[in-house]
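Final report, closing paragraph on structural work. Over the funding period we assembled a curated collection of sequence-structure pairs, and we close with a single example.
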Amino acid sequence: MQVDLKNRVALVTGGSGAIGRIICVYLARAGARVVASCSHMDAPSAKALQKDAHDNGWNIALQPFDVASFKDTQQAVDAITADHGQIEILVNGAGITRDAPLKRMSEEQWDQVISVNLDSVFNTCRTIAPGMAESGYGRIINLSSINGQKGQFGQCNYSAAKAGMHGFTMALAQEVAAKGVTVNTISPGYIDSPMIQAVPEEIRDNIKKDIPAKRFGQPRDIAAAVTYLCSEQASFVTGVNLPVNGGHFIH
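Its predicted structure, as stored:
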């Protein structure tokens, strides 16, 4: 399927991460003018993405900001709009983990995960979605998680945030559907990334055995799903949660 996103302005939060950077590349290859966001502390490593993009002729810019801050998000969106034009595609991929069983989870661990993983979705959508609706076009994709569907030991904060993300998706989809804006969720399963590679090999092997596809997903699997949901072919798809997990959790 050929996806044409020529000159569409796309913002990818968490764009310098293992999955986010491949999403940026896929959207740029489809012709979008991509802005990758990262936290201020990750800005140096994110510059490597910019260099790769420049070397390969991809249109990927960098805009560091704190997605957990509504004010910082507003200022960043204003800057992106001034430099590149109105944002037409929004991919909410920023996320962190602060794992602990609930009985040992601190208030700070809870607040940090909810702020970065869920408050950020409100911050970006509240700032960007009205402009999409006014112009009559928009694509919003929120990256949730398999653990937002089935839960996970030690991740009450993460699972709650990721489940809340899809509730947000379903509600906003109904508000903007008549305005030409689609809002969808993608729930990745276990993806081959530095996060999964940090898990002890024995545990990784046990996880893989439980995946019907008998492999971990690749960042490109998520990027391909994002690209499809951004396409004109997906214009009648909204409010859905698309699991990309190799059959690990079917619901």
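The longest helix spans residues 107-135. The mean pLDDT is 94. We thank the funder for supporting this effort.
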